[in-house]
Amino acid sequence: MTRRERSTLLTLWFFLGLLPLFLRPLWEPDETRYAEIPREMLASGNWLTPHLNGVLYFEKPPLQYWLSAISMKLFGLNGAAARLPLALASALMLWAAWRLAKRLGAREPLWASFMAATGLMGFVVGQYLTLDALFSAFLVAALAAFVEAVARRREGAPALGWTLFTFLLLAGAMLTKGLAEVILTGGILFFSLAFAWKDRDLRRAVVRTALDPLGWLLYLALVVPWFWAVNRANPGHAQFFFIHEHFTRFLTHEHARQGSNNWVLDKLYFVAFLAVGVLPWLSATVVGVRRGFTFLKGRGPQGTDHLARWTVGIAVLGFLWPLAFFSLSGSKLPPYILPAIVPLAALACTFEREGEERAAYRRMGKELVVLGLLFLLAGAFFRHEVQGRGWVLAVGAGFAGLGLWAHRRAALSAPQLMAALGGVMWLLLVAGQAVAGPGKSVADLVRSTPANAQWILYNDTFQGVPFYARTRAVVIASTGEMGYGRDRLPDAERWFQEDMAALGPVAERMKAEGPARPVLVMTKPSTWKNLRPEERIHWVEVARSPAAVVARRR
Predict the structure, then answer these.
(1) Using CA of residue 63, residue 64, residue 69, residue 75, what is the dihedral sign?
(2) Contact call for residues 321 and 91 (beta carbons, < 8 A)
(3) CA count, 13 A, side-chain hemisphere, 294
(4) How far apart are CA 254 and CA 475, in angstroms?
């Protein structure tokens, strides 16, 4: 990596991967959940078994929880510190895009990093505290490291370092989200053998790298101890985690996460999200993929170069296999397809030919203009329904203006494009907070209440309450994914009730047990509005926002 490449990657990471993490409070429900679990690790001192609102939470492995807990230990119990592991995800993603594009032979591999960082899906998911960004970053970085290990072994150069790095990254993916890593990387590597089969040395390099005993020893040494220890401390963890959270989730609709009730729309779900997610680089991506397939057919200038063909093949599989796997799955959420973004960016960057820059700028400019018009129309037609309308219009003007500027290629240099598009992406984050933030955050509501309050979460699980109040809450009619942990509590009825009519009795019991501590309930405004009048007279509303209502028991 040259000094220029290093400084550019660091600049991209600082402005697009790190600073945006400080712009807004945590949003319900995902961000507060993934911040509360590490907060409880710090509060209890139990770093082995994840807990959420005081109950066992075995949905995912602990690596990101550990990273967030360490960050909050160092920088305080706040949303930015909880999000800080996303900065690691951004760094890995930028590096993986650059490394893969460089090995593919791109003239300017830094553009792959920029495209991955500024595509709508990569940018938005990279600032949102779930496990998807870090999991995807580990996967694509492992793919890039694997390609480098195979290439060096095929060329007769030392490859052990890259091999061990690959298995280290795969262990990180496994400890972040589980067995999906095995299926995704296993499928890509297995099918990539088809592109290496005619070259004996290359085929052996792929197999030797994938089955490297030292690599597997490192992987197992990193992965096995936690799974063994947590199942030993909590019998039943393995069955719930491996069977229920993987095979049941992906083979059935038990979690009600299908893309659509229509079978065709369900299977096209990720195609649509991927097309939108790579904007404003959709046309570049389509060109790159089409030329990649042409190259694999042997029609390109390097069609007989087996290493080059395998490298292009594994990049194509890097987006095609996740797309196929998740499309066939019974569980769908938009961020699942995130691992496809980096291979697509690398292909788009690699197959842009010299002299095509002006045409590429014009295509991207059209996409930016379309994006801008969509935001402008949204701001115009939904002016009464949309808060922060001015910011929406600013984003629309920013995208459209930049698109028109890009259409005039001679007036826009590459650094100017990077700076301008980065600025518009920042505007997008600010607009997102202005429009959706008031309805997604309960931080101000909780901070406005007494520190010693007792809390009830009614008909919705606001994990921001335990995070900001630093206390456990009673849950009524919203147990949801905490059901596994609830069923293993010796005093489950004290903390969880499924009957909505239990609100009054539970509040009176809490009031009697702690007369000096106010009893507060948080619920959605619609639930509060529909609360029975004979129950509501026992409560005094003390705070309200688009996200929730807070009331105190009289």
Answers:
(1) positive
(2) no
(3) 11
(4) 22
> Mean pLDDT across the stretch 13-23?
94
Residue 228 has pLDDT above 80, yes or no: yes
Going by C-beta distance under 8 Å and a sequence separation of 6 or more, which residues neighbour residue 444?
A: 25, 545
Residue corresponding to tokens 């089955």? 211
Are the CB atoms for 395 and 424 separated by under 8 Å? Answer: yes
- Look at residue 397 and give its three-state secondary structure: helix
For 458, list phi and psi in degrees, rounded to 5.
-110, 115
Q: What is the pLDDT of residue 266?
A: 77
Q: Are 363 and 283 in contact (CB under 8 A)?
A: yes
DSSP secondary structure letter of residue 257? -
553 DSSP β-pair partners? 539
Closest CA to 476 of 516, 517, 510: 510
C-alpha span between 307 and 311 (Å, rounded): 6
**Element at 39 (helix H, strand E):** helix 30-44
Question: What is the structure's pLDDT at 260?
Answer: 58
List the one residue out of 133, 221, 219 whose CA is nearest residue 169.
219
Alpha helices in 278-350 (DSSP H): 282-296, 306-328, 341-350
Backbone angles phi, psi at 261, to 5 degrees: -75, -15
Residue (of 422, 332, 314) closest to 96 by Cα position = 314
* 8-state DSSP, 413: -
More confident residue, 238 or 536: 536
Nearest 5°: the CA angle 122, 128, 134 is: 65
Structure tokens at 125: 């998911």
DSSP secondary structure letters along 338-391: GGGHHHHHHHHHHTPPTT-HHHHHHHHHHHHHHHHHHHHHHHHHTTTT-TTHHH
Which is nearest to 77 in space by CA: 381, 464, 342, 516? Answer: 464
Residue 255: which pLDDT band, with cuts at 50, 70 and 90?
A: low
Greatest mean pLDDT range, 200-204, 268-272, 293-297: 200-204
CB 365 within 8 A of CB 400: no
Strands 519-523 and 549-553: antiparallel
Q: What is the pLDDT of residues 410-461, one digit of tens each?
A: 667 888 889 999 999 999 999 999 988 899 999 999 999 999 999 999 999 9
Integer Cα distance of 260 and 269 in angstroms: 8
Structure tokens at 530: 């529909």
> For the residues 327-337, what does the mean pLDDT come to?
85
Show Cβ contacts of residue 339 under 8 Å, excluding neighbours closer than 6 positions.
136, 139, 140, 184, 318, 319, 322
The model's pLDDT over 363-375, given as tens digits with 9 standing for 90+, comes to: 899 999 999 999 9
Omega into 29 within 30° of 0, i.e. cis? yes
Q: What is the CA radius of gyration of the chain?
A: 25
SS3 content of the chain, % helix, strand, coil (to 5): 70, 5, 25
Say if residue 256's pLDDT is above 70: no
Q: Is pLDDT of 196 > 60?
A: yes
